[in-house]
Amino acid sequence: MVIMEEITEAFGETETILVYNNGAQTAYSAGEEQYNKILACWNEMIGGAHDMPAFGVSLDRYTKEEMKKGLWVEFDFKKVLECNGMPFERLLVEVQKNFQGFNIIRYNADYGYDGRCFYLDLVGKNMDKFHDLLLNL
Fold it and tell me: 70-100, pLDDT tens digit by residue?
């Protein structure tokens, strides 16, 4: 298990990025041009973000239903990482224009999407550019 000091450190360990658009899934593997574009835009967006207490917890069944609507991005690490005592194998984020902060939902093979979340405040930034990138890949 790899332990991270800050949740933002984890994204450098991503092996696959999955984009869900109204339930349709597209996967991008490390090294692909689209993967690189997504990760660069993501890192630019979260640069300087503040890790905050999450607004809630995720329920696996509810999260899977919500992923069928709207735009989502999931970072798959193919191994267990941990931050703030919370292990995860994947991190899922709902992507919406104007979001200036968001929950990061953890996934574990044993519990699915059940459990506490992370939260990032973008500190004066929003998800507009990232949202548009994902829609135009």
Answer: 999 999 999 999 999 999 999 999 999 999 9
Distance CA 133, CA 129 (A): 6
* pLDDT, tens only, 98-115: 999 999 999 999 999 999
Residue bearing tokens 């506490």 = 116
Residue 128, C-beta contacts closer than 8 angstroms, at least 6 positions apart: 97, 98
What is the pTM assigned to this prediction? 0.96
